[in-house]
Amino acid sequence: GLWSFSSTVFAPMLVRLADRLGRRPVLIMSLVGAGVANLIQGSALSFGAWGFSIFLFGRFFSGIWAAVGATCNVYITDVCPEAVRASYIAQMSTVPLVALLFGPGLGGGLSKFGLNMPVTVDGAITLVSACLVSYYLPETPSFLRNRRNKTFSSDVAADIEAPRKVTPLSFEVYLLGFSMFLGGIGFSALLSSFGLAMLIRFGF
To answer: Do 122 and 103 touch, CB atoms closer than 8 A?
Structure first.
């Protein structure tokens, strides 16, 4: 529930931040945040009576950075030609399914070394991914071009400041966000139930 709530609230903010700061900084920020959140959850057992509260905070903090997938899709949209864009986005959409298929087995195997080991390893891998993105991934040419155009336009129109009109979001957008919130809760409940079923049926 906490993860679904924070991801629903902060996902639009991250997407807007990607439009303002760039795709690359937000990707790195999201990966670092997700990695740190997983490490917080993995270390919760070390805090004694505070462990459960620390774990809940880690879940909430993890949801803040859940829009990394949406930012990846924006990056793909910026760098891929229209002819292959749909194919790459479709491949990106299969990543959660592959994770759901292989993740429980890998997590169950890692849990033999400790119940906090799966999320700790996940956090370490995510932080390594952030380092790789920081080193190898450039900013998209589309974002850099748009930023130059905006700078030029603001310089030209510096003396002619027009009032900005903010387009209000329609009811359908809020309805979609609420349905995604409920879907996230259902998906989290499914994962929890699957974990319990694996524990009862197979012992891990």
So the answer is: no
Residues with Cβ within 8 Å of 90's Cβ and at least 6 positions away in sequence, in order, are none
Q: Cα–Cα distances in Å, from 187 out to 64, 158, 196?
A: 17, 49, 14
> CB-hemisphere CA count at 13 Å for 187?
13
Please report which helix (H) or strand (E) contains residue 179, including its range: helix 171-202
Tell me the residue type at 169: L
Identify residue 1 by its one-letter amino acid code: G
Strands, E, within the chain: which ranges?
none
Q: What is the pLDDT of residue 40?
A: 93
Task: Report whether pLDDT(194) > 90.
Answer: no
3-state SS assignment for residue 24: helix
Of 72-76, 135-139, 155-159, 174-178, which gets the smallest average pLDDT? Answer: 155-159
Name residue 175's amino acid: L
Torsion of CA 171, 177, 183, 187, to 10 degrees: 180
User: How many CB atoms neighbour CB 163 within 10 A?
Assistant: 4
Report helix angle 2-21 to 23-42, nearest 10.
150
Provide the pLDDT for residue 153: 52
Question: Are 71 and 24 spatial neighbours (Cβ–Cβ below 8 Å)?
Answer: no
165 pLDDT exceeds 80? Answer: no
